[in-house]
Design a protein that fits this description.
The complex is a heterodimer of chains A (306) and B (397). Chain A is built from four helices and 19 strands. Chain A folds into two domains: 136 residues, Cupredoxins -  blue copper proteins (Immunoglobulin-like), CATH 2.60.40; 149 residues, Cupredoxins -  blue copper proteins (Immunoglobulin-like, Sandwich), CATH 2.60.40.420. The longest helix of chain A is centred in the first third of the chain and has 17 residues. Helix content of chain A is 10%, strand content 39%. The N and C termini of chain A lie far apart (56 Å). In chain A, strand 1 and strand 2 form a beta hairpin. The radius of gyration of chain A is 19 Å and the shape is globular. By secondary structure, chain B is mainly beta. The chains are: A mainly beta (306), B mainly beta (397). The interface between A and B is large, with 44 and 45 residues.
Chain lengths: 306, 397
Amino acid sequence: MPIKLLINVLLTIGLSSALTSSAQDTLWISYGTWVQELDTMDALRFNPNDAFSSNNAVIDRPADAASQLVLVNNDSLDHTLSLSGSADDAASSWIGANLLAGDTTALDFPALSQGSYRYFLNGDRAHVLGAAGLLRVGFPAPGQPGNPGSPSDPATTLLFNWNLCEWSPTRIATVTGPTPEQWTPPYIPKYFTINERSYPATIEDPATEVNLLLGQTGIISVTNHGYMDQVVHFHGFHVTILYDTATPQRQNWSKDTVPVRAGHTVTLELHADQLGTYPVHAHNLIAVTNAGFYPGGMLTLIQVTP
Amino acid sequence: MTRISLAIALATALSIVSAVGPVLAQALPPLLFSEMDGIHTLDDGTELPFWGYGYVAENEITLPAPVLIYTLDQNVNIVFTNPSPESHTIHLHGLDVDQANDGVPTTSMFIPMNGTGSYAFTADHEGTFLYHCHVTTTLHLSMGMYGMLIVKRPDGLLFEGGPAYSTDVPVLFSDLEIATNLDPTGSFPFHDLRPDYFMVNGFSGTQLEEPEQIIHYSSDGPVALRIGSMGYSRTLCYFPPELHAVCHMSDGRALSAPFAADTLTVFSGERFTVLISPDPGFDGTIEAQFWNAPDNGYEQSQFIRVRDEVLGLDEAAASTASLHPALTAYPNPIASGSGVRLHFNSPNALTIFDASGRLCHNAPVPPSGLDISSWSAGHYTAHTSSPDKGTTAFIIQ
């Protein structure tokens, strides 16, 4: 529909110009395919432009400030958007307006407290296809107010984000046909990803691999948009749990092994107090494989340099 | 001294041999060795191959590996020799050692067949830790190459400013897939590893009823349960209220706010230190439920028996009923209110009736508990079809 597309583009440009200028003010919901080792799988993703990418976008927002997000739904089905995360009722009770197929919609986000949130499309099809990203609230990027300095400044806090998920090509195939098929257990995920990347691709992504100078602090925002609970083990370091939506009582615990329950988020602070290269990985060790081959999956590195 | 604490004392004595600085490393004889020819006897008598570590002095590998005990601030050097036909390492899980001693082949080093190496670190945090092989970890861990490591304070406190206690008891959860242990070279693909045998300190089922596996406590003071998991399953522990269980530490760090532990979820690689102060004369069990990770489905329960030592070791005198405790609701009584959740020590379907006989619930209760926010104050009864659990009553105030 060329006329509708034109309207969408005009609407998007108009709304974007009214917001703070940033690619993350507009997200495209796009259907495509991605390849992991032996399998080509259908995928539904949130992308920062109209080109399909298998990686869901990260959204940043200041704390305690309402904001907007423009969504262009290029999928063939209508959707609704939800938020989860933090202990913030404003997130759990919020649900976005209907996102009509082929249409563009501006959503009003509620004011949210500092933390990590999961934004996602509702429904089993969207869940299985992986339409879920990370919304980071109240952690300014280096050089922004509240976090002055450059990434090479030892006093600067660096930001990292891990969007965890496991994938079953068999299960994905049940939602991609014209009529959804009944899926039956057992659930046997074949791929395990951080930011829709599996090791070794995880060490090529600057948001995934944790690169810090000695003495620097990193904030790692983690969400799990799969069906399976995960647990992340840090070599070389303990991290401080800033927020944990599944077990809020763990706030400020110092841990080297941190569960990330399905559908939940944790926010971690890592202080780089020793030099070296250290793995960080899922400790349910089926999740450090790609199609059954070790090593792979939810595995990346922490690199601390002088 | 209990049998378990005797075993720990022996482990401590052996470990002290290694309590020297890294400069003397090459002068030390190996403390640990690895082999791939162990035989572990399952609860049904099946003899299952496993890979593991053992003390060189004992010339035997065990499942799990020996508990290593060190003293806070001790400079440790573990000399490790590998006469087995594959490379292995020792990853000191949670000790935040430097890169060279981290036990990861690609970033640290590995000990090849017939090689010897050493791992040096300073035990600068008291607490409960683990060690395991990090070569083809998915397989080597499943085959049994793991153990517990405890760092203790010399003053008998759990941590600086923390509570005193009497005895350490390791509680290491793990699991295995029998088919993998029978045919490790045929175990591919690793993502489809589905454990079907579940253990506490390497033992399962009726093995946990043997006297040496029972936690015998005295009136000397609280018992420190050093809980950890090297399994692929999530383990959910149910502590009877008579144990007065309080969790004080996790992952080798003190918690700023200890919490009463009626239930505790332990994921692979996590550790918790829980003090129990059982009522005098108590003889019962801690239920450890194993839940598989991909499906989040209940697999099996194992029961860790806790028994007042004044009751003696005569197992014939012990009530077998206590090994499979009756259905219990906790806390009980429970105050009504928003967000209040009631827990049960059973994953099975429960039917719950109020005092007038009205059916209030008919489904399994999730591990997070049953939301009774909207339930009226009063007396309720819960029933399960499981023949060894039966019925219990609870009161909402």
